[in-house]
Amino acid sequence: IHQFDQTNSILNTFISEIRDVKIQKDAMRFRRNIERIGEVLAYELSKTLDYGENEVKTPLGIKKSFLCSDNLVLCSVLRAGLPLHQGILSYFDGAENAFISAYRHHPNNDDDFEVIVKYFAAPSLDDKVLVLTDPMLATGKTLENVLDALKSHGTPKQIHIISVIGSKPGVAKVKQDFPEDTHLWIAAVDEELTSKGYIVPGLGDAGDLSYG
Ligand code: U5P
After folding, report:
1. pLDDT at res. 12
2. Looking at ligand 1, which atom is closest to the CA of residue 141?
3. Number of domains, the chain
4. What is the ipTM of this complex?
């Protein structure tokens, strides 16, 4: 787990703004802040990828450069995951993309819920670096379902998860469900979950704040 809210960086400003009840009302700023967090975490993640030596021809000569040799697939959950996806894609612009829909269904109208998957589109994952994104890692049930749905699409070389805010139980569940060498890149981890599966203090509902 790579967590970033305990170090001094501009990332803390973005995290603070998406949590703040006054600032988060501005949906455009909220989405852009999530994108910016995606950009920062994508940059951090990029330091762990494989690179190959290349040559770039400038108008005045030749310069050695190191370019990423991994093939990336970014997979996000509709709809809350879209701004985070966009932020990460703006750095890994050559990546393939996978989308999955998942929502919480409360069969008995109480706090219990199951996660329903209705839409799913993904390329082959064989030997690729899979980057799963979920802005809020609350109970971890969504990511468990996403991992399940992806199983029939091949075996990735490596799995990374990028998330904005997580809960301690959610992080523990990811550790249990995912292969041991999975990396989790997360801006902040909060202590608690409510009985309805909301992160406390968290920020509220990321999908509603982004898309009303
Ligand atoms: N979610 C929130 N805020 C929370 C908890 C969950 O918006 O405090 C939504 C997000 O859309 C997130 C999904 O992607 O639920 C993950 O929940 P879970 O499956 O990890 O419990």
Report:
1. 96
2. 19
3. 1
4. 0.97
